[in-house]
Specification:
Elements: H1 5-9, H2 13-32, E1 36-40, E2 52-59, E3 69-70, H3 75-85, E4 102-110, E5 126-137
Parallel strand pairs: 1-3, 1-4
Antiparallel strand pairs: 2-5, 4-5
């Protein structure tokens, strides 16, 4: 795809113009196929659009990237996760489809249900974090 300096020097103006268009198209496709990352508080089989083999890796809270898209549907959970993760986690009732271009970061609450209005993690509660990816679809 990429050409060396020597190859570019040997190209005429119209060839260079075509090459620039190809690079722009490639960059656009690369952006469209970029890995999507979601933060959720549960995994559901309904997140799969077709049969798949799914991998669950337990990770540390610091491994959750700060540029994830929140799909946390409860304000209290989002507030507590914001405190635990150290970056804003907005409440966002979104449906997520897991495919080969998607990474899920699951924050699994351990210890029971959060008390109504919680903004910090109550004593005896914790989160376990998992990175969930599709290994094979179909």
């Amino acid at each position: 795809m990429y050409k060396s300096k020597e190859q570019l020097k040997m190209m005429n103006l119209s060839e260079i113009a075509r090459y620039v268009v190809e690079l722009e198209q490639y960059a656009k496709l690369k952006e469209e196929w970029k890995m999507k990352k979601y933060l959720v508080n549960a995994f559901s089989i309904q997140m799969l659009s077709e049969p798949a083999t799914v991998r669950f890796d337990e990770i540390d809270a610091t491994d959750v990237p700060s540029d994830v898209t929140s799909a946390i549907g409860h304000a209290d959970t989002a507030a507590v996760l914001s405190e635990v993760l150290g970056f804003p986690v907005p409440m966002n009732r979104a449906s997520v489809i897991l495919d080969e271009n998607t990474e899920l970061y699951v924050a699994q609450l351990v210890g029971g249900r959060l008390p109504e209005g919680a903004t910090t993690l109550p004593q005896g509660y914790s989160f376990k974090f998992y990175k969930v990816t599709v290994v094979q679809q179909g």
